[in-house]
Amino acid sequence: MKMHQKQSHRINRDSPAEDTNFNPDNDHDIWVLLDQAHFAVTRSRLLELAQYNLTKEQAQVLYVLKIRGGSATMNQIASFTLRQRHSVSTLVNRMEKAGLVKKVKVSKEKVFKVIMTKKGKDRYEGVTRESIEMIFSSLSAADKRKLVLYLNQLQKQARSLLGLDYKPPFLKRTAKD
To answer: Which of 97, 94, 75, 96 is nearest to 85 (CA)?
Structure first.
């Protein structure tokens, strides 16, 4: 009987998501739910992006370039996307071959600025965001504001634990930042 009671508090993998009992006092349960929500939203977005011959990663780079006025350094893209610099470099090289971006060397160092091309801008601006809008329409404006607040808090803590934003005080900022 104890075994049965213990299992009743676990996630029922055969039932729909709304029937699962996630314990809000259990950090792991919250993480599992967050991961499942991320996967479902991402899967919806991937299906939509595929219609425009864009990957999620390409769309993310184009978004970074858009919000930064059309250009960004490789390090800025890596920092925003939380991807390794070599992964960003490979992605940007493929995007350059596809004509979505152009790389321009900005100094004598190995610093490149990535610039969105007209083709990249047209492609990105032509992409619908219906999947995102349909999913997030289930939240009120107040709920969206709370969600953004909570996600920013979690992201800040995770970035801190990973040491992603640490800059020794004795180092000067460079164009790589």
So the answer is: 75
